[in-house]
Design a protein that fits this description.
By secondary structure, this protein is an alpha+beta fold. The protein folds into two domains: 61 residues, Arc Repressor Mutant, subunit A, CATH 1.10.10; 188 residues, no CATH class. The protein has ten helices and eleven strands.
Length: 268
Amino acid sequence: MTLRKWIEDRAIHGYPTFSVEDVRATGLCSSEQILQNELSRLCLNKTIANVYRGYYVIIPVHYVLRGSVPATYYIDQLMAYLKKPYYVCMLSAAELLGAAHQRPQQFSIMTIFPKRRIVSTRNVTIEWFYRNTLPPEEAFVTKNTETGTICISNPLLTAADLVQYQQHVGGLSRVATILEELSEQIDVKKQFTPLVACVKKVVWQRLGYLLENVVEQKKLADDLYEQLSASSGYLKYQPLSTSAVDRSSLRDSRWKININIVIETDDI
């Protein structure tokens, strides 16, 4: 049996990915150099794609012309291979929840430390973010994909991550634009409790300010303020934007926010 035939058989039987260790275990290649040469050749002719160091996805026919496979096709299998928990986050989660206005250039994944060395490939670039621990399962939503399911952040966690990592997603104006649609799916009373231990108080303050004063979702903001007050108590003044100079000349007394940036949402 050739390596190509072995790969075709895997695809037929519903296994869209494999590792270099899987190939070694077959004994199909008489040396490591031959194995690496074969994998390189199969990557060049778009039979497979190297999506992580030592990990490959079999390119299905409908993706051959573009020569790459979307991360949703293999991310669950990759994270199982890495033995790390994860969830799809921020702009990628917003897109999957139907709240993004354009497809992000990178696919955002939240996982746990330690960081791993990533190899850039021609495939979709994965942008990695890290926490010490992930929120409990109640904070996630399962979405079906071509090859199974993936785990994504629920609407409230998505909103919180967008605010926390505002500099990575294009700033608070872009965050507010996404919140205009994402807010329709947020249920603070159901989604807040699992996030108390893993989202910083200042993130809730900034999100609450945006919901109330920019997105004009007063009911959602009231619900968030009620939950935040019950769980956190005292709030101290914090800058709205993490990328602008902190100014105390203009303040929001309810959310204890120093308004140090002008936010303008895009027309939907």
